[in-house]
Amino acid sequence: MSRFITGIYNYCDYWCARCPLTQRCRNYIEESDLERLQQAVEEEELEDHDAANREFWDKLAVNLREATVFGKKAPETDEWEASRPSIDFGDFESDDEYMAREQAINKAVHEHLLNKLSKEYLLSVRDWFKSKQTDKDLKTVAKEWLAQAGQPFDKTDYEEAALEVRDLLDVVGWYHTLISPKLYRALRGLLDEFEGDSPVAEIIQKSRQSDANGSAKVALIAIERSMAAWLRLMELLPQQEDIILEFLVLLQRMQKGIHTELPGAITFIRPGFDPGTNFLEAEDDPEWL
Questions:
Q1: Residue range 263-285: average pLDDT?
Q2: In sequence order, which ranges of 112-198 are alpha helices (DSSP H)?
Q3: How far is CA 161 from CA 6, 137, 183, 234, in A?
Q4: What does the pLDDT average to over 35-61?
Q5: Domain residue ranges in the chain
Q6: Does residue 187 contact residue 115 with C-beta atoms inside 8 Å?
Q7: Do residues 209 and 279 lie in contact, with contact meaning Cβ atoms separated by under 8 Å?
Q8: Residue 17: in which H helix or E strand, if any?
Q9: Percent of the chain with pLDDT over 90
Q10: What is the pTM of this model?
C-alpha cells in the first residue's frame, strides 16, 4: 500500500503548515526540500507537528457547534430560486464555438449570487484587516491583558488567550481568500453542462459535477471554520460585534447557497480527509461519480 493518498491535494485547503496529512501528500513531499525533511525526522518533529494540528482544530470544535446552530436559525428566503443565470449557447459557428461557450459560462458564473457574495466577503474582510479601527481594537485588548496579567487572584492564562487570538486571525485571514476561487471553480463545473447522450458525454458531465461538488465541499468547510473563528472573535472583541455579524451573515448566505445549488457537496468524500470510498478509489464502478 502506497504511503501517498491519491488525489488528496485536489480538494484540500492548501494550508500545508496546519495539515496533519502532509506526509501522505505527494505534492507536499515533492515540493519540499530534502534537507528540511531529513532535519525534521532527526528532530522528531513530524509526530509533534501532526498532534499540534489536531489540537488546533479541536479548539474550534465548540464554536463549530455554535456555527451550526447559527446556520440553522437562518431565515427562509427565495434568493436562490432564481440565482442561477440561464445560458443560451445558441447555434454558434463551429470556429467560434469554444470561445462563445467560454464567454457565456464566465458571464453566468460572474452573475451568480454565490460568486457575488464570495467576492463581497473577500473584499470586506480584506478591508477589515487593513482597518485602523481593527488595529486599534486589537491593541486595546492587548493592553488590557498586559495590565491584568499577574494580578492577584486572576487565574486567566493571558498567554494562551493571545495565542488563541493569533490562531483565530490566521483562520479568517487564510480562508477569506480561499472561498471565492473555490466557489468560482464549483460554479463553472455546475454551469458548464456537456451536451450529448453518449457514454463519453455522460462520464464527462459526471466528472464535472463531481469536481464542482468537491470544490464546493472545500468552500463549505472554509465557511464553517470561518464562522467558528468569527464567533469566538466576537466574544473577545465585543466592540467589533456589528461588523463581525455582517461577515457571519455573508457566510451564512453562502452556506445556504451551497446547500441549495450544490447539495452533492455535503456528501462528497475528499481523498484522505473524509471517511468512505472516494471517486478516485471507485473508478471501476459505473456509479463512481
A1: 72
A2: 113-130, 132-148, 158-175, 179-191
A3: 38, 15, 33, 14
A4: 50
A5: 8-71, 106-266
A6: yes
A7: no
A8: none
A9: 35
A10: 0.73
